[in-house]
Amino acid sequence: MASNNPDKALSISAGQAMNVVLKAEQDAENGFPECKKLSCHTIQDAQQHSATIARRTNKRITTMHLRHKQKVSHRISEMERAAASELKNVHGRGLDEGKLVGAVNEVAAILIGLPDSGKSD
Predict the structure, then answer these.
(1) pLDDT over 80 (residue 22)
(2) Measured between alpha carbons, how far is 74 from 44 in angstroms, rounded to an integer?
């Protein structure tokens, strides 16, 4: 039977509204642990992904370092062979050792910034 009293209808509506709010609060509280679990899982996934990126980066750095180290070693070996070959040629020509020492001293003076001695042959 329908009530003609507006206050009674209003109080039923207010009671129902409170029940809806209480139910929403309860649902939110019940959903919190699942949300926390999901966020923890997301954080773990992100940490694992970050670790994977770091490992791959370190591997690439190591590979590049080794490749460049090999190139430098190869270039040094080439330079040493060339210098040894030039040295053989110099010894074969009977270069004046006094002139060689003078040239070395002049280059050393230039490298360390001593004033120009004015000597040149």
Answers:
(1) yes
(2) 45
